[in-house]
Amino acid sequence: MTRLLTTLLVSSFLLLSLFSTSSYAQQNCSGFSFRNNQNFATCNPLPLLNSFLHWSYHPDNHTVDLAYRHGGVSNSDWVAWGLNIDGSRMVGTQCLVALRNSSGQIHAYTSPISGYETQLTQGALSFNVPRIEAEFSNGEYIIFATLVLPSGRTSFNQAWQNGRVSGQTLQRHVTSGDNMRSFGSVDFANGQLGGDGGSSVTSRQRRRHVHGVLNAVSWGVLMPMGAVFARYLKVFKAANPAWFYLHVACQTSAYIVGVAGWGTGLKLGSDSPGIKFTTHRNIGITLFCLGTLQVFALLLRPKPDHKYRLYWNIYHHAIGYTVISLSIVNVFEGFDALNGQKNWKRAYTGIIIALGAIAVLLEAFTWFIVIKRKKSDSNKNPQNGTNGVNAYGNGTHQQA
């Protein structure tokens, strides 16, 4: 039993370490190896859409060799990256586009954007692009290109994007969430990202990661663990009253950490007007309210022999299991909002499957203990009394 408890506690923090590892990998792109053995002097992770920009700037001829990587997509998607010489958003961006064409080949081309209803039609850019090609592997597009930068400048606004391809028609990209924030600036000379899509979005993205970690660990892991302690440990006499304190510790910790995560979510919402995840937000508010009711219910818990204890137990269990179910659903809603973080979703799915498997095994084991204990008690206190007198006080047997 001690080993099982240790496993549960370690598992609850495994998700946090996986999140940290994933976040570090996203921020570190310098160790990536290209199949054509190309090397680039600079690499920066773009703050959104699981994208990276590698480049080498050549001041003697004012050109840039670059590779744009966009992961978390399929070969039925299109991806694009571009520079906006005179503007800051989509209109005016001079794009490099990659997709799979009708012959099944990965095709790269240039496309200037002149309006919001663009179909990313092939055309010449306002600056020269002597080389462009692309490849697709393991859910990631890579566009290789050489750009001849406009004279006298090394710093430009940039934008990047992805969308679906239907037939040979490029569908419009998603008009919410990260797809509406994927812009910023890049300075090819000093290797820095900046602007709205650089440091400020990186800071916001960091807060989103903190929000996700806090809520996944609290509502999504600690809450179910607390229920496991209460459901199964109290069957064992040696675990009384330790199971109660473990249960309270888990649920209280989950509530405190969850409130912190809820607060970061409110802050993110106020900092991102016009960007809404309605289902995720509404479930989060519901969880906060139900969780608060559960905490205050502890202060009103009747004694075990009180006549209202049965009703309190029904209320406590119903609200508790509702909170756990909604928590798991909302964690997955949060992963959908964190576009491109599939590794996080897989890690959490693994944790939930492990907890579910442990719960199933403990359910079977505790029922075995309960049935065995009842049989033992029955043998110690048989219904038939001595000298043939049964529990009803006479010498005859009751007939079915």
From TrEMBL:
Cofactor list: heme b
What keywords appear on the UniProt entry? Electron transport, Iron, Membrane, Metal-binding, Signal, Transmembrane, Transmembrane helix, Transport
InterPro entries, per database record: AIR12_DOMON, Cyt_b561/ferric_Rdtase_TM, DOMON_domain, UCP037471
| Signal peptide range | 1-25
Q: Which residues form the DOMON domain?
A: 49-163
Pfam families assigned: Cytochrom_B561, DUF568
| Membrane topology recorded in Swiss-Prot or TrEMBL | Multi-pass membrane protein
PANTHER family membership: CYTOCHROME B561 AND DOMON DOMAIN-CONTAINING PROTEIN (PTHR23130:SF172)
* Protein name listed in UniProt: Cytochrome b561 and DOMON domain-containing protein
Give the species this sequence originates from: Anisodus acutangulus
